[in-house]
Amino acid sequence: MKNVLRTLTITGGLAASLLIGAGAASAAGYDNSLLNGDHDLLERLNFLGSEDEDNSNLVIDSQKDADSNVNVESTEDAYQSNLDADAEGSAEATYEGEDETASVEADGDAGVMNETVVDEENDMYSSTTEADADGSVEAMYVGEDETASVNADGDTELMNRTVVDEENDMYSSTTEADADGSVEAMYEGEDETATVNADGDTELMNRTVVDEENDMYSSTTEADADGSVEAMYEGKDETASVNADGDTELMNETVVDEENDMYSSTTEADAEGKVGAMYEGEDESVSVDADGNAGVMNETVVDKENDTYSSATKGAFDGSLNSMFENEDDSSYLNADNNTTFVNVIETDDENDSSTFALGADSASFLALGSEDDENENHASFMSALSAWIKAEQMEDSSYLGTEVDTTSMLGLESEEEDSFFSMLAATANLWVESTENEEENDSNELGLNLDLGLLASSESNN
Asked: Helix or strand or coil: residue 44?
C-alpha cells in the first residue's frame, strides 16, 4: 500500500510540470523547460524506491510542441492584428519490477487567439480573444495482490468580444467562460474494492451593452455550476456506496433606460441537490436518499416617468428524505416530504394615488414511519398543509385589508396488535376590513370575519 500512495502522489507533480512546460514553450519557443530534461523526471518518478541505481527498469518519454503565428496589417487609418498560439506537451513514465508495475501518463494543451481591429476613419474598435487549456493525468499501479488507478481530466475555455463604436456612442462586451473536470480513482485488493468518481462543470456568460446615444444600459449574466460524486466500497462481507449530485443556476438581466427614466431587473436562481447512501452487511442493510430544491425569482421595474414601481418575488422550496433499515429480525423505515412556496407583490402608482401589497405562502408536509417484525407491524403517518396570505390595497377613495389562513392536518396510527387511530382537523379563518370615501354619499366601512372548523376522529380495536 505504501508503494501505491507513492505512485498516486506523483500525478500532481507531473501535471504541474506539464502545464509549466507548456507555458514556457509558448513564451520562449523551444528553450529548455521542465519537460525537456529526463534527469529531473527521473528523480520525480523514482516513486517505487528502487535501489537500481541506473534505473534500468524505468522508461520515460516526454514530448512538447509549440507554435505561434502573428499577422499585423496597418494603414494610415486602420490597424488589424491576428495572433494564434498553441503549446502542448506530454510525458509518459513506466516502471516494471519483479512483482509490481507502475505507469503515469500526462498530457496538456493550451491555445490563445486574439483578433484586434482599429478603424479610426469610422471611430470603431473591436477585439476578440479566445483561450483554451486542457490536461489529463492517468496513473496505474499493479502489484502482486492489489491494483490502483487514478484518472483526471480538466478543461477551461474563455471567450471575450469587445466592440467600441464611438461614432454611434455604443459599447458592447460579451464574455463566456467554461471549466469542467473529472477524477476517477480505483483500488482493488485481495478482499476489497473501492472506487471514487467525481465530475464538475462551471459556466459563466455576461453580455453588457452601453448605448450613450439613447441613454441606455443593459447587462445579462448567466451562471451554472454542477457536480457529482460517486463512491463505492466492497469487502468480503459488506458493501457501501454514496452518490451525490448538485446543480446551481443564476440569471440576472438589468436594463437602465435613462431617456425614458426606466429601470428593470430580473433575477432567477435555482439550486438543487441529491444524496444517496447505502450500506449492506452480512446480516443488515441501510439506505438513505435525500433530495432538495430551491428556486427564487424577482422582477423589479421602476418607471420614473409614469411614477410607478412594481416588484414581484416568487420562491419554492421542497425536499424529501427516505431511509430504510433491515436486519434478520425486523425492518423499519422513515419517509418525509415538504413543499413550500411563497409569493410577494408590491406595486405603487403615484400618478393615480394607488398601491398594492400582497404576501402569500403555502406549505405541505408529510411524515411516515413504521416497523415490522415477525409478530407485529406498526405504521404512523402525519400530514399537514398550511396556506396563509395577506393583501392590502389603497386607492384614491377606498382601501382594503384582508388576511386568510387555512390549515389541515391528519394523523394516523395503525398496528396489528394494538388499537388503530385516525384524526383530521381542518380550519379556516378569514378577516377583512374595507372602507370607501364618497363625497356625495356617506362614507362606508366594513369589517368581516369568517371562521370554519372541522374535526374528525376514529379508532379501531384489534382485540
From this structure: helix
| Residue 103 parent element (H or E) | strand 101-119
Nearest partner of 88 among 58, 127, 132, judged by Cα:
132
Length of the chain: 463
Query: Longest C-alpha distance within the chain, in Å?
Result: 111
Residue 244: count other Cβ atoms within 10 Å of its Cβ: 16
Taking the complete model, does pTM exceed 0.90, yes or no?
no
In the predicted model, is pLDDT for residue 31 greater than 50? no
Number of Cβ within 10 Å of residue 365's Cβ equals 15
Residues 6 or more apart in contact with residue 141 via CB below 8 angstroms: 3, 4, 7, 8, 100, 101, 102, 147, 148, 149
CA–CA gap between residue 406 and residue 453 (Å, rounded): 10
Q: 381: part of which helix (H) or strand (E)? A: strand 377-394
320: pLDDT strictly greater than 90: yes
d(CA 55, CA 454): 86
Q: What is the spatial distance between Cα 217 and Cα 450, in angstroms, rounded to a whole number?
A: 50
Q: Which amino acid is at 377?
A: E
- Closest alpha carbon to 9 in 58, 65, 49: 49
The contacts of residue 182 (CB under 8 Å, 6+ apart) are 151, 152, 153, 154, 197, 198, 199, 200
In this predicted model, what pLDDT tens digit does every residue of 153-188 receive, in sequence order? 999 999 999 988 888 788 899 999 999 999 888 888
- In this prediction, residue 178 carries a pLDDT of 92
Residue 340: closest CA among 292, 300, 299, 410: 292
pLDDT of amino acid 392: 92
Task: Give residue 49's region: left, alpha or beta (phi > 0; psi -120 to 50).
Answer: left
Q: Which residue has the cell 398601491?
A: 355
